[in-house]
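ok posting inputs for the nicotinamide-adenine-dinucleotide job
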Amino acid sequence: MVMTTTEVGIGPAVIGRMEEFEHEEVLFCYDRTTGLKAIIAIHDTTLGPALGGTRMWPYAQEADALNDVLRLSRGMTYKSALAGLDLGGGKAVIIGDARSQKTEAMFRRFGRFVHSLNGRYITAEDVGMSTAEMVNIRKETPYVAGLPENMGGSGDPSPVTAYGVFCGMKAAAKVAFGTDALSGRKVSVQGAGNVGAHLVAHLVEDGAQVFLTDIHDDKLAAIAREHPAVTLVGPDAIYDLEVDIYSPCALGATVNDDTLGRLKCAVIAGAANNQLADEVVHGKAVMEKGILYAPDFLINAGGIINCAWERKGYDRSAAMMQTERIYDTALSIFERSANDRVPTYLAANDAAEQRVRSMRQAGLRF
Ligand code: NAD
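and the output
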């Protein structure tokens, strides 16, 4: 009997989903011995090989994993295009619990799947992953970035990502408040993880009043010890705070029908990918509410910029300087959004698509 993808639990037909945003390739990976269940999505390789991290998450359903990898890989195409990188967009997800199910064999097996794509996809860290897993993947394929510094890699990209988010946030502040100084501004940060922790340090140093939440108390306690002035709040209470800036640095889709009525801020600027639950609906809604949204894929590009430098010979200060350009790119996107009277996410999408299209039309495909 032939089963449809809906019947096997994938949800809507996979190729139909690929057609929607013109994904080039989706690879489903399964290995009985190691328990590996993964999906690798290559969205667009016009500008270069598709570089994007692997996320390990205990998705409740395969359809959720597929949705995530399709959205995230498309976001990577836009992110690299806007950052001026010669890279395409791709992403991978591993279905599993990062706290209990990681093994060397699983990641080496995953590395073989990455290798089977012959360099069209290059992986790196994302949520639930660390440099240790990249080392195991590297045993099976050279198509991996985010290796530890003692292996010639660029190490954890989170500090660079956090710096880029900070620069993008300052650009948004300049437009929203007339000054990019964050001193005295109230900023709520959701997520005390790798990026959140570094972002909080920048904000505190700049004199911002920081409110922080996480679902893990140990992470909050560590940051509170280092920065006693930070106010800790509950995971749900973060949406009701009266702040100048809301910075989502945990997972995506936190700007949604429920939270939009609760958020009291002038700017949304954070690291999390896919912050708008529905780009079209919520991108327009934030604009109508008078909130300036700094598109996530625009301001969280520091990590991918760092990985790109790893591939051409790592230079941390060059990566930081290129990351700093996020400030100017963000200002140009906010200007485009205001001039064209379109939501900021759309202005950013247009700019990214324009770059990809112009390279394709000039016959400069990777
Ligand atoms: P991380 O896993 O280190 O941190 C995420 C934190 O969010 C964790 O501490 C987790 O406990 C917390 N969290 C999860 N659900 C939450 C909730 N409902 N409320 C409050 N806290 C919650 O990940 P990270 O590397 O810091 O990345 C954060 C976000 O930024 C992710 O969405 C990631 O995709 C994105 N991002 C990261 C990088 C990077 O360089 N690390 C680059 C680009 C984008």
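notes: The two ends are 40 Å apart (CA to CA). Residues 158-301+328-352 form a domain with the Rossmann fold fold (CATH 3.40.50.720).
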